[in-house]
Amino acid sequence: MGLIVQKYGGTSVANIERIRNVAQRIIKYYQAGNDMVVVVSAMAGVTDHLIRMANQITENPNPRELDVLMATGEQTTVALLAIMLEDMGYPSVSLLGYQAEIITNPAYGRARIIEIHAERIRELLRQRKIVTVAGFQGCDEKGNITTLGRGGSDTSAVALAAALDADVCEIYTDVDGIYTTDPNICKKARKLKKISYEEMLEAASLGAKVLQIRAVEFAKKYNVPIHVRSSFSEEEGSMVVREDKDMERFVVTAVTYDKNEARITLTRVPDRPGIASKIFTPIAEEGILVDMIIQNTRQGGLTDLTFTVPKTDFKRAMAIEEEVARAIGAENVMGDEHIAKVSVIGVGMRSHTGVAVTMFSALARENINIMMISTSEIKISCVIEEKYTELAVHVLHDAFGLERISR
Amino acid sequence: MGLIVQKYGGTSVANIERIRNVAQRIIKYYQAGNDMVVVVSAMAGVTDHLIRMANQITENPNPRELDVLMATGEQTTVALLAIMLEDMGYPSVSLLGYQAEIITNPAYGRARIIEIHAERIRELLRQRKIVTVAGFQGCDEKGNITTLGRGGSDTSAVALAAALDADVCEIYTDVDGIYTTDPNICKKARKLKKISYEEMLEAASLGAKVLQIRAVEFAKKYNVPIHVRSSFSEEEGSMVVREDKDMERFVVTAVTYDKNEARITLTRVPDRPGIASKIFTPIAEEGILVDMIIQNTRQGGLTDLTFTVPKTDFKRAMAIEEEVARAIGAENVMGDEHIAKVSVIGVGMRSHTGVAVTMFSALARENINIMMISTSEIKISCVIEEKYTELAVHVLHDAFGLERISR
């Protein structure tokens, strides 16, 4: 018995039948004596429909008003779920963002939670109500509706769990946990019983789409245990928790890949102070996110500079850099859209040596050429030719023995 | 130049193209220097869709949660309208019920407005914003969402006009004003330039569906001039205003009809004190609304009692009364579903005599039998056979010279 925050994503509440299943699951926990707070997303497809309506008017809807529109999606789900629970005979109260007093900054469309006044929820829990909360939304200090950005319901749930000091925050999705790698590619992939916040953050930023990065950051900051699991089965999923000794036994925990980046290289750039700023400022001004950057010094005061950008921004970035190259006197601009980034992640790296060597040799044995390398304390990423992605995932999964992992 | 509150109904905002037309109309008034507050309903069909979703779960959804669900309809429209206005280059801010501080009692689904704190709207108007407000919704003192019942957006608009001391409240619908009678039945029907609150109240309760009764009551109480007009034309509509001398020149202003009632008669009822209570209490307990009641005393301590109920409740009411008749020793219960009520309305009745005589003789000339009569200070209603409805409307319209009315 304890206080449980559950979050159900769009596919879990896609229609009335699924909302009924969700309600039954909630009731099971409630009947066991737990206090229940349930966060829901918009029904699958609703958010896209709302955006399409706004785009029928304009490509650039007013951000404040777009948030008012978007907030109806979660409002619909939370009301339907409360109606369902009440109809099944369980006392339930729905709260919208402003009613749950989820206070955010006024950055419409990508607001950040500043604080949650959880007293109203606590009072409802004392009355043994099942509290259902509209995810993805909050309000600023003036009472304007704000939304937290795509996937923001994860963040709503974790923030509520932190504010209420919940025992666990269960995130229900359409996958049943976090795997050592993508099971669609590698049949040997194993579900992890637990993964550290740090590893999850790296995995999320490296292409794993299970949890929103900000939700994990929030959980880490307030030490909220997250349980990622499927709403379509009873199986235990994966726990995202604080790092413990046990985790260090394994050098590497997960292999991820990302095919959404492209590579741009400027050759024979005159190597003067301020040159990097000239190359990256115009890209940043266009709102293009640069991921990896590598600079090789050549002889004679010249340097080659390579970086990656999202594939969707590739053409714009190339056009910008061709102008930059002319302005700064670089020799050439080369682009490559057919790349992928494969990464190995694990807190065990901190205490084990030779991880990079194992990774590089494993790739080399298959004649996979490494174009770029980037490392952090707990991950190593290599850019390779896109066509080798699946092969690389297999050999790295094997090389680090992930099919035998037990945690 | 002044302060104008406009209200657009569901058909006026049924799709993006119509919302664009509405925005253009608003801008025309705004550019002329007026302060604009605009109340919108849910897009046509949306409210029914939301009810259907709730009814997929249960026939009796929790009232609080149903209001949370229903409120999304107007929220969607108000956001889209504000997005449209902003995109056209006009500063606009949308407000939901709680943001406009429309405070109601907590009677979910049929809440009544207690007060409106209009300071926020006034401040926005001072900044020359076009304020768009979600109709039909408010919040109770605890911040729970409430709705005002079907057609409640009319009430929202009139209440806001009263709170802001607006110069006029324009109600845009799919008809272009208030007519002396239904133009679909009587080609001679004329649009009224103005009609008094009292007449409008009688007309609304006698079957005219242009304005919600509570909106008219509100307008009367706070003396808000209502302009009923069409969003599909530029033509002037009809003003609903305080009674003036001019109005008394005409004996009768409008002829209405209502085919939605049925008649029930109990014959030879023992005429004892408390007998009426025995007849009507079980009907009231079932939530059935009784409209007209007529009692004829017979000789020998017996009486015949006739009353009307909505046709949709006729079968239930008959079943109840058959039991009642047995219990109180009445002779018989007779029902008739094929009746209609025709009425003439006009504040001029107060100062003119012989209105009833004119009405009865006009019907008699066509051999239309009058089954029941009911009068108020400014209206006379007769129940007749349903098949004579259209004929009765024609002869009454002629008898009171309504095709020549000029007001």
Structure commentary:
2 copies of one chain form a homodimer. The first copy, chain A, contains 11 helices and 20 strands. Chain A is of the alpha/beta class and 407 residues long. In chain A, the strands form 5 sheets. Chain A has an 8-stranded mixed sheet, sandwiched between helices. Chain A has a 4-stranded antiparallel sheet with strand order 13-18-20-19, sandwiched between helices. In chain A, helix 10 (355-365) packs across helix 11 (389-399). The two termini of chain A are 25 Å apart. The interface between A and B is large, with 38 and 38 residues.
CATH top level class name of the largest domain in chain A: Alpha Beta
Overall shape of chain A: globular
User: How many runs of DSSP E, i.e. beta strands of chain A?
Assistant: 20
Strand order of the largest sheet of chain A: 3-6-2-1-9-11-12-10
What is the count of helical runs of chain A?
11
Question: Which CATH architecture of the largest domain in chain A?
Answer: 3-Layer(aba) Sandwich
Major sheet size, sense and barrel closure of chain A: 8 strands, mixed
User: What is the mean predicted local confidence, pLDDT of chain A?
Assistant: 93
| Assembly of the depicted chains | homodimer
- The proportion of residues in beta strands of chain A is 25-35%
Separation of the first and last Cα atoms of chain A: 25 Å
- Low-confidence blocks of residues of chain A: none
Main structural class of chain A:
alpha/beta
Pair of chains with the largest interface and how many residues each contributes: A-B, 38 and 38 residues
From the 3D structure, determine the CATH topology of the largest domain in chain A: Carbamate kinase
The total number of structural domains of chain A is: 2
Q: Can you identify the CATH superfamily of the largest domain in chain A?
A: Acetylglutamate kinase-like
